[in-house]
């Protein structure tokens, strides 16, 4: 997956949520959205606790703090955050997952965390991987937007997919903000977004 394929699109999304939509270009980006941007994360799994937090420093005004106290390095998906993907996905489409996040220090260490895998997957068993994003390092105690992109390996019916962020590999605290899922189709050309 290319992490930077849609940097410009992500920047436009971030801007469009923090201020009124200023141009047709902003509206054009959001027409690719497969979800309504939300910070309402479903966090599950053993070894973690979570709570909704308010924070005016991030688009949308808050997020979900996830504290992984008992990590499971061999099974990082044991503690995960997820959200539904409402739209339909076709095999071969370029999908971008972008989310706001920040890390908090644990036991006097630096503000750093790792999302072991960013995954668009089937919303029910067998949880097949539609887009595999790999690891994302949350390298700041300040809010930043992180993104991964890739081509869909399979189709998903409307409402048949979800995003999962695997958080359980290490002892860490991460705050997850709004999530965006964009589908740019099979013929996406990065030069279309400037």
Write structural notes for this entry.
- Helix 1 (7-18) packs across helix 2.
- By secondary structure, this protein is mostly beta strands.
- The protein is globular.
- 41% of the residues are buried.
- The longest helix is centred in the N-terminal third of the chain and has 12 residues, at 7-18.
- The chain has helices at residues 7-18, 24-30, and strands at 42-44, 48-54, 62-68, 80-85, 94-104, 113-115, 117-122, 129-132, 136-138, 144-151, 161-166, 172-183.
- The protein contains two helices and twelve strands.
- The strands form three sheets. Strands 1-4-11-7-8 form a five-stranded antiparallel β-sheet, with no helix packed on it. It has a five-stranded antiparallel β-sheet with strand order 2-3-12-5-10, with helices on one face. It has a two-stranded antiparallel ribbon with strand order 6-9.
- The chain has a single domain (7-186), classed as Galactose-binding domain-like (Jelly Rolls).
